[in-house]
Write a structure and sequence with these properties.
The chain is built from eight helices and 14 strands. It is an alpha+beta fold and about 240 residues long. The protein has two domains: about 10-70 and about 205-240, Pseudouridine synthase, CATH 3.30.2350; about 70-200, 2-Layer Sandwich (Pseudouridine synthase). The strands form three sheets. Strands 1, 2, 3, 4, 7, 10, 11, 12, 13 and 14 form a ten-stranded mixed beta sheet that branches. Strands 5-6 form a two-stranded antiparallel ribbon. A two-stranded antiparallel ribbon has the order 8-9. Strand 5 (about 80-85) and strand 6 form a beta hairpin. The longest helix has 12 residues, at about 20-35.
């Protein structure tokens, strides 16, 4: 007689590889865990790597809460290029010479992005207008007015400047488009810019150091995976679990 597989409950932290959508990761794990109750708490673009918070079983009820916590990223801005998607996955629309820039000047400009503000989402985004994702309109060559969204940039520091690249670390609220920050920084520096790399390193109290790669997870048995699940009560207030 076959014993039914125990249903898993908890939060699985995955180090998402580049060129995978968040949906791709969920689909692979759905097959591995043999469960329909699985989702994620915050999309990463295909070009981005890093922390993808996967919710399994009863933990799926925490989706809205965990999507709402602050996020931390490390990434790279490439100056001198403007693309239609605001990252290197898009089509280069303009190239510009890069002026003589100092770290002091760049840091001062980055400091101007701190705090509460409204940010206009890029056309290449999953935001829907009349039920149609903006990125589908963008692929048809369309551009429509977008409603600015309230965001907060908690911190934005330069880690290294090696022209034309700026390595950075940023902490921000949900809904912040880091590639738009990169685009806007390039504009303020007078030479344009786009995001060339992005890695999510934190989501609330959950950190990338706790994450496993897809390959590591797929090599584990179900009981071994269960040992890596973060209990829901550690990541969310107890009232959300009652």
């Amino acid at each position: 007689m076959l014993v039914p597989q125990k249903e898993l409950d908890g939060i699985l932290l995955v180090d998402k590889p580049r060129d995978h959508t968040s949906h791709d990761v969920v689909a692979r794990l759905r097959g591995k865990l043999r469960t329909k109750r699985i989702g994620h708490a915050g999309t990463l673009d295909p070009m981005a790597t890093g922390l993808l918070v996967i919710l399994v079983g009863k933990a799926t009820r925490l989706s809205q809460y965990l999507m709402g916590v602050d996020k931390e990223y490390e990434g790279t801005v490439e100056l001198g290029k403007v693309t239609d998607s605001q990252d290197l996955d898009g089509q280069v629309m303009q190239t510009c010479p890069i002026p003589e820039l100092t770290e002091v000047h760049i840091k001062a400009v980055m400091k101007g992005f701190l705090g509460d503000q409204y940010q206009t989402p890029p056309m290449y985004s999953a935001i829907k207008v009349d039920g149609v994702p903006l990125y589908k309109m963008a692929r048809r060559g369309e551009e429509i007015p977008r409603e600015p969204r309230f965001i907060r940039v908690v911190s934005w520091e330069m880690l290294k400047f090696y022209s034309p690249h700026i390595d950075f670390r940023v902490q921000c609220t949900k809904g912040t488009y880091v590639r738009t920050l990169a685009h806007d920084l390039g504009a303020k520096l007078g030479c344009g810019g786009c995001l060339s790399a992005l890695r999510r390193t934190g989501s609330g109290t959950l950190k990338i150091a706790q994450a496993l790669t897809l390959e590591q997870i797929e090599a584990l048995t179900i009981p071994e995976i269960e040992k890596h699940l973060v209990p829901a009560h550690i990541a969310a207030p107890s009232q959300l679990l009652s």
